[in-house]
Every structure is written in C-alpha cells, then in structure tokens.
Amino acid sequence: MRASLIQIDVSPDEAVDSRRERVASLIREQSAADLVVLPELWTTGAWAYESFAAEAEPLRGPTHEAMSKAARDAGVWLHAGSFVERGEPDGSEDGALYNTSLVFAPDGELAATYRKIHRFGFDQGEAVLMGAGTKPVTVSLPDTTLGLATCYDLRFPELFRTLVDAGAELLVVPAGWPERRRAHWTLLAQARAVENQAYVLACGTAGTHAGVEQAGHSIVVDPWGEVLAEAGPGDEVLTVDIDPAKVATTRKQFPVLRDRVLGLETPTR
C-alpha cells in the first residue's frame, strides 16, 4: 500500500481558492498512491481563529466539491485533512462551527466525516469557537481500516485505543502543529504507534500563519515505532510504501494488547 502525505504551506499570502486549486493539482499527481492525506485546516490555517467564521463552509461546500473531484481524478482514497464546517441548522447544530475531516473513496464519494473531539485552546481559540465532535470514526479500505484523529487528539491515548478496538490499523492524524512543540509531535506519533501496534500517518502544515510557525515534519511510523519517513519543514509530498499485514504480524509476535486489564468495554462502531 502506498501512502502520500501532502504537507502544505498555509502562509496567508495565498488566497483560499488558489490554495484549493494548488492542493487539488497535487492530489492528481499522486495517482500511483492508494491513500493521500492532507493536513488540518489547510484552507484557513489552524491558528487563524479570526478567519474561522468568515471561511466556514457547509459540509458539501467548495472544499468538499474540489476534494471529491480530485480524489476521483486521481483514483485514490483521500483523507482531505480538515476544514471549518458550519453545521446545518437542524435544531441541534444550529450553524455551529466544527473542525471537520472528510474522507473520499476513489470514485469521489464521501466515505466518512469526523468532527475533531478534543479542541485546543484552554478556554480560548478553537476551544470556544468550535463545537466538539462526539464520535470516534473508522473507515474500511480494501486492505486495512483507518482510524481518524486530528492534531490535539494526538495527546489523548484513550481515543486511539478506542479506534483500535473498533478495528483501526492505520491511525491518520492531520495537524496544524506548532514548531515550538515539534518534539512532542514526533514523540506522541511514535507513542501512539507503539502502544497500539498500528501505523501512524501524521500530516502537518508548513509555513507561518497567525504568527505561529508550523512544525511541518509530517511523519509515518510503523507498528514497532520505527519512523519510515519524515518530511522537512516546508512544502513537501512524503510518499512511503507500507505493509498493512505488518500490524497483524506485530500483534501476533508481541501480543501486548491481549494483556490489557482496564478499558475493555465493548466498542461501538
């Protein structure tokens, strides 16, 4: 299985429409890949809080349209990172904002959505401007199952264990991680891989937006915690071949997950 992580510069001197077109072109270039992954909030920038309301889109808005077509043109599974979603007024959401990920099948059909559960900001920023997701999400591919998480979620191991209990073997984490905490980014990606005996595909943004320098350094980690590939700090497409069967092999050779004692309630798919 070939995965391509597209690390995107989200500096504010590029218009959102132009960035969508650029990213769609990059996706179409990855037709040899099976799975393509984009970063968190790459349209607006994860730290550009003042732009969230103005740039918010409905679920099936311009980002959905552009990414669906790009996935179909390339014939790839596409985790389209995340964007600022304005929920449909249905009595429960009433136009609230969410940090929402979209996953498209190779035919361009929407296969899954995930609203970020853990919002960053400590009573400011995303934590107060956006609603929280409530449901862990997995996506079945022909040879494996993806578990979806976003950026700050990486600090909460219980989410990843829930995803693994639901069958996840590849844990996909789009992010807008700051450079000043890049050491945590690498450490936590490896920790989530080792403790769950799963692949971690963590795709970050590059550049600087809202005054926050981004870490870049997208990373792919195997079930033993080995870093298979790591990007630099700038725009980059990181492509790596992975073997989904290695998850089962690792869990059989070193069956640590069977010795769990706590948190064994039956997961809900």
What's this model, at a glance?
With 269 residues, this protein is of the alpha/beta class. Helix content is 25%, strand content 26%.
What do you see in this structure?
With 269 residues, the protein is of the alpha/beta class. It has a single domain, classed as Nitrilase/N-carbamoyl-D-aminoacid amidohydrolase, CATH 3.60.110. The chain is built from seven helices and 15 strands. Strands 1, 2, 3, 4, 5, 10 and 15 form a seven-stranded mixed β-sheet that branches. Strands 6-7-8-9-13-14 form a six-stranded mixed β-sheet, covered by helices on one side. A two-stranded antiparallel ribbon has the order 11-12. Strand 6 and strand 7 form a beta hairpin. The radius of gyration is 17 Å and the shape is globular. The mean pLDDT is 95.
How many helices does DSSP assign?
7
Order of H and E elements: EHEHHEEEHEEHEHEEEEEEEH
CATH superfamily: Carbon-nitrogen hydrolase
- Gap between N and C termini, in Å? 24 Å
Total beta strand runs? 15
Rounded average pLDDT: 95
- Assign a percent range to the helix content: 10-25%
CATH architecture: 4-Layer Sandwich
Output the CATH class name: Alpha Beta
Q: Give me the Rg, rounded.
A: 17 Å
Number of domains: 1
Biggest pleated sheet? 7 strands, mixed
Task: Write the CATH fold name.
Answer: Nitrilase/N-carbamoyl-D-aminoacid amidohydrolase
What is the global morphology?
globular
Q: Approximately how much beta-strand content do the residues carry?
A: 25-35%
Structural class: alpha/beta
Low-confidence stretches: none
